[in-house]
Write a structure and sequence with these properties.
The protein is an alpha+beta fold. It is built from three helices and eight strands. This is Growth inhibitor PemK.
Length: about 140
Amino acid sequence: MTADFPAAGQVFDYHYLWKWQADRGESEGRKKRPSCVVIVVTNQTGQHVMFIAPITSKSPDEGRVALKIPETEARRARLDSDVPLWVVLDELNADILETSYTIEERSPRGSFGAAFTDAILHEVKRLRTAGGLKLSSRT
């Protein structure tokens, strides 16, 4: 694990569990995908709780909230910059770094810049306040 992982804006490969999968009783993400650390908080026991957003090349469905990743940000995060990509913001996974069985590689592949990371966090906060954020706990 790198000394600075996890940090907001870092992108790593993660077995993301979509909310619809969790609602069906699934507990494993079906495939590893690039995902973004939105925010990290420390819980009462000193563990790092990561809130993780999925990255997809599939255009978001009507009613979903996602930010299109600019080509420059895709290159920074070491993502494919030849295809359109989005960070899905209306659903997140919550996972504890120290006890996670789903985080295999604990080094980021890359990181978004500060302005784009702030835009992600701002939108997630807005969604949370408005009651539009879905969460799948992996803890």
